Hints:
This is RNase H type-1 domain-containing protein. It is built from 42 helices and 31 strands.
Amino acid sequence: xxxxxxxxxxxxxxxxxxxxxxxxxxxxxxxxxxxxxxxxxxxxxxxxxxxxxxxxxxxxxxxxxxxxxxxxxxxxxxxxxxxxxxxxxxxxxxxxxxxxxxxxxxxxxxxxxxxxxxxxxxxxxxxxxxxxxxxxxxxxxxxxxxxxxxxxxxxxxxxxxxxxxxxxxxxxxxxxxxxxxxxxxxxxxxxxxxxxxxxxxxxxxxxxxxxxxxxxxxxxxxxxxxxxxxxxxxxxxxxxxxxxxxxxxxxxxxxxxxxxxxxxxxxxxxxxxxxxxxxxxxxxxxxxxxxxxxxxxxxxxxxxxxxxxxxxxxxxxxxxxxxxxxxxxxxxxxxxxxxxxxxxxxxxxxxxxxxxxxxxxxxxxxxxxxxxxxxxxxxxxxxxxxxxxxxxxxxxxxxxxxxxxxxxxxxxxxxxxxxxxxxxxxxxxxxxxxxxxxxxxxxxxxxxxxxxxxxxxxxxxxxxxxxxxxxxxxxxxxxxxxxxxxxxxxxxxxxxxxxxxxxxxxxxxxxxxxxxxxxxxxxxxxxxxxxxxxxxxxxxxxxxxxxxxxxxxxxxxxxxxxxxxxxxxxxxxxxxxxxxxxxxxxxxxxxxxxxxxxxxxxxxxxxxxxxxxxxxxxxxxxxxxxxxxxxxxxxxxxxxxxxxxxxxxxxxxxxxxxxxxxxxxxxxxxxxxxxxxxxxxxxxxxxxxxxxxxxxxxxxxxxxxxxxxxxxxxxxxxxxxxxxxxxxxxxxxxxxxxxxxxxxxxxxxxxxxxxxxxxxxxxxxxxxxxxxxxxxxxxxxxxxxxxxxxxxxxxxxxxxxxxxxxxxxxxxxxxxxxxxxxxxxxxxxxxxxxxxxxxxxxxxxxxxxxxxxxxxxxxxxxxxxxxxxxxxxxxxxxxxxxxxxxxxxxxxxxxxxxxxxxxxxxxxxxxxxxxxxxxxxxxxxxxxxxxxxxxxxxxxxxxxxxxxxxxxxxxxxxxxxxxxxxxxxxxxxxxxxxxxxxxxxxxxxxxxxxxxxxxxxxxxxxxxxxxxxxxxxxxxxxxxxxxxxxxxxxxxxxxxxxxxxxxxxxxxxxxxxxxxxxxxxxxxxxxxxxxxxxxxxxxxxxxxxxxxxxxxxxxxxxxxxxxxxxxxxxxxxxxxxxxxxxxxxxxxxxxxxxxxxxxxxxxxxxxxxxxxxxxxxxxx
Length: 1164
């Protein structure tokens, strides 16, 4: 029987492992399929990639020395690049070369110019052979140069020997563990390397193959040779990018824990602080031209060895550079090999190391010979100085450094800047281009008190062609939200941490996002929909707020000087607008009611936190709550959400997660403020009368829920809800928006002031083997926003005593933190014990962290509990040989305990868990009371909201069941049925004398000339003639005609005229289409004609003071136009009036006019 039990348990264990493996493989397969589909979607909004090189043009200029008498031959100075395939441009005249006899060229036609001086020669290469031949010719000159002599680099060697202290060599062979840790760092989106291996290929490679590969790499380093196959690189020529968005103590380029944001945040912060304190500051920005191609190899290898790089690695690198060959690949055809004896190949990881070595020398050189501050990012070099004389001296020293390396600074990308006009004038005297603002490493830099947002707005405008594409995507809403978060907002707000922008731009992005999500219904509030009812990052305002906070926090932790600048800035700040990272932080904090006292921020509840030390998860919770409370406060000003005081978004999230997607979207229509009452719809839709379709009373949400007789049975099913209805705020009962938890602020303040409570033994009697069991406990682990209430305990199995227990302080009330603190307390007693100590923990995270420190004392976890881990590290230092950690399974059943040791560990682990639960009684009474009040209110609001959701769904079903508007489409035939007689309600008894008083054209009337200048002569004259002619009709009547009827009439050509189009250069001005190129003239939409007519008659009234009788709220529902329309009283013939009605009915037959978007189409 015992054997059968063992066989069964073995089968069960293996079966569970197999099921777990199968589920994992299935999950990964589904994840790959989902990722593939998402990649296709993101490819639609990704910037267009570069196409392979298909055509190549080479341009050059040469002097014309003479011209033949007939003008068909010229004598040129440079004949090296001229062949019969060339095209010559001589002062705008393009000619082909018929023949070339040395410097004498015969042209296809005579030259028109009498005395030409310069000829521009263009050579075209279109076939693969021609392109590869020219590329090989061009790049060979750059990659293979005359061998430099030893004296060429003597300055570099002498400088290094004098000022660079030699560092001992550091080399160790690659191990499998290092290889695995390196491959783990690759992201899922990591590209394949030149070897063709993907991320998963490297991570899932069998260990035997990994060992073989690592042995080969170590062997290559030992012999100093690469395999020949790895010394060949394939070059895919692409068109050159117009700009670069790569960016990052003073050296930032492609180094560990460095980033591009550091360099422009630091520079802009220095500028901002200088302007505030009125200290002079100037700078210089430059770029090395073809840096990687020009770097000398011998000095780099020598400097690398002096700086402590491994000789094996350097020898292997030298072998690679000497034996590397490049082959151009075009249309799947590989060109001949091209060798090189200078520079390092672009795209190679070691090339970044080469540039880093050169930058080390650059910074050392500038520190020694110039009184400036130097910064670098790969080949981007920058200088800062308080005086222009020192800056000019620094520029000269920078050129001297580049000459030492035989490098050339790019004059086109070099410029100076200064913070004051006086300094800028001095910089201009040094014959250097001076800029007020520019894009530096992709970020919009402002070099002075005059702020510019042009570069940042260009990024926002670049999204314009993508919005329509996103609107047309037939994908789920959550996919569109993901596209906004991962593709649109990062592109729009890159570098915005130093750029202060108007809130108007964020509102525009919100509007576009609402359209893309198809949530732009009447009354819908973009902030409520995007920030509260969706993921908060969907709101561009919150995304911007969060990214600025993250960037500022990250740079403060990386750059100690940045933190000093921040403190100095805030000490001098007097409240005036400031532009830069500090002004930006002030701007975003003001939006959510936060205050700044570096390095502390005080949130909207008056609780202070250290921006540098707070964990990212906690900071995100604070940011989301602050932003959503601000959105709710702005939304609460509406009359239909009375009683809304903040928002309890945690209640909303919990209820929303339990709803089906279609129900959740239906509830969002109420919660985002969309107008759902017929009373409101009747203001812009005349087909609705504003009364309840069931009882005829005035329609409103309150009427449907509380008063309408048709919903009496629904109300009877919710007696508790009806009992408390009058006590609920209107925003909660009608719009399903719970106000913020009134106990949350008090709890946050109590929690911030509360200290950790601890009780424990002073000492333990020493034991040869001491076993300490630790555990952490959370009363409410499902509520991680500080309400979890964490506690811990330490129990000694050898003494059968509770060694210590206590509570956790701070907002981070999690079981993980409680477990780590418990291990820290156990370590204190373990250090005091003279024998061996084993610390037992059922938390894998905590036990694994301690195991890492015991294995390597310097390997300390750097997560949100880093402060506790550092204390554990200090305690374990020197005691790792006698202190051990052991993980034990938690909460095991008695039927699974097979050995005595299992029973023993289970007993003491349960004992530690029980003591941790008892430790909660140490918490302060006021803190625990406010916590319970907050949680009770949360649960109560959640249950009420669930009832309200069910109640509103049943109300909606009651009205939907017999609502004919939800089943019957608009009667198109009725829209076309226009009475033969005129609408008597639109006939006006007043006369329209101004129509006959319109002046004749041409003429010298001043008002007429103003109309002609604004709308063009042809349109103005034709409209004047038509309006006068209509008054002369025998059956003319004064009729209230709408502008939309006039627009359809003109659009169908019933008035003999040419419709002008808007002038692109001047606002509110129209031009005759015949004076414009045909390519930009297109059919005008009804909306465009409406705008033209509205401006025409308004200008007519203004120029002649005619007192035109305008009419509002014309009812055109009989012809398919539901919104009330604006019009005017005109004297028109009866036939014209009838024709207009018929035309409008025909236009709206296929698509009724219910909103402004229905007018965005041509008339025919």
